[in-house]
Specification:
By secondary structure, the protein is mainly alpha-helical. The protein contains 11 helices and 2 strands. β1 and β2 form a beta hairpin.
C-alpha cells in the first residue's frame, strides 16, 4: 500500500501540534485520506511540516487517542475512522484538537460533580438542573443547537455539588467548553433524529440519577455522556 501525500502548511503562531493535528484531521474528514490509508513516516512529516519529531509524535498520539488513526508497530500509522466532513464547518481545524483535549479534565471534574450533586443537591438546585434540561429540550425542538442550554445544564450540576470551586472551575474553562459544545451540538443538529434523542436521553439519565440521589449512577451517566459526546465528534460511532 502506497503512502498518501499530506499537503501541510507550516504554522507560525498557533500551537504546532494542534495545527498539525488539525490539518491531518481535516484531510481525513474531507476524504483526501481514506480509511485504511497509510500516513507518511514521521521523518517525512517532519520535513514537509518543518517541525521537530516530538511535535509530530504528539499530534499522532492524540489522533490515535481520539480513534482517528492506529499505529501498527514496525509497519506505520493508518487512518482508522473518518469523522463527519462537516466537522470543520463548525470549528477551525487547529481548534478541534484543543476542544477534544478539554474532555479529559471534564471527565475528571464533571463525573465527580455529578456524584456529589446526587448526595448534596437541594430542592432548589435540582429544580435549576431540571429547568436547564427543559430549556435544552426546547432548544432541540426549535431546531437550535442548544449549546448555551447545555452549558447551563452542566454548570447547574456543578453548582449542586455543594462546593463553589466546581462551578468556578467550569467557568474558568468556559470558552473552550462552550466551543466544544457548540461544535458537538452543531453536528448533532445536522445528524439523525435518533442521534438527537440519544443526546437528550443522556442528559435525562443524569438528571434522574441526581434526583434519585444515586451518586454511583450519576457518575456513571455523566462519564458515559461525556465519552459519547467525544465519540460523536470524532466519528467513532460512524453515525450521523
Amino acid at each position: 500500500m502506497n503512502d498518501v501525500m499530506l499537503k501541510l502548511k507550516p504554522a507560525r503562531r498557533e500551537r504546532l501540534a494542534d495545527v498539525l493535528y488539525g490539518q491531518i484531521l481535516e484531510q481525513i474528514a474531507s476524504g483526501q485520506m481514506a480509511e485504511g490509508a497509510k500516513l507518511p513516516s514521521e521523518a517525512r512529516i517532519c520535513r514537509d511540516f518543518q517541525v521537530s519529531r516530538p511535535v509530530v509524535r504528539e499530534a499522532l498520539m492524540r489522533l490515535q487517542a481520539d480513534g482517528l488513526v492506529v499505529s501498527r508497530q514496525g509497519i506505520g500509522t493508518f487512518v482508522k475512522s473518518r469523522p463527519s466532513n462537516k466537522l470543520t464547518d463548525f470549528a477551525a481545524s487547529a481548534e478541534i484538537a484543543s476542544y477534544l483535549r478539554a474532555f479529559e479534565p471534564r471527565l475528571a471534574l464533571e463525573t465527580e460533580c455529578a456524584g456529589l450533586a446526587a448526595m448534596r443537591r437541594t430542592k432548589a438546585q435540582l429544580n435549576q438542573i431540571g429547568d436547564a434540561l427543559s430549556a435544552l429540550e426546547g432548544a432541540f425542538a426549535r431546531g437550535e443547537t442548544g449549546w448555551e442550554e447545555d452549558f447551563a445544564f452542566h454548570l447547574a450540576v456543578a453548582a449542586a455539588a455543594g462546593n463553589e470551586l466546581f462551578p468556578r472551575l467550569l467557568e474558568e474553562l468556559g470558552d473552550i467548553l462552550r466551543g466544544s459544545m457548540r461544535m458537538a451540538l452543531s453536528l448533532t443538529r445536522q445528524g439523525s433524529d435518533d442521534r438527537r434523542r440519544r443526546v437528550l436521553e443522556e442528559h435525562r439519565k443524569i438528571f434522574m440519577a441526581i434526583s434519585g440521589q444515586n451518586s454511583e449512577l450519576a457518575r456513571l451517566y455523566m462519564r458515559y455522556h461525556l465519552t459519547e459526546s467525544r465519540a460523536r465528534i470524532t466519528g467513532s460511532h460512524g453515525d450521523l
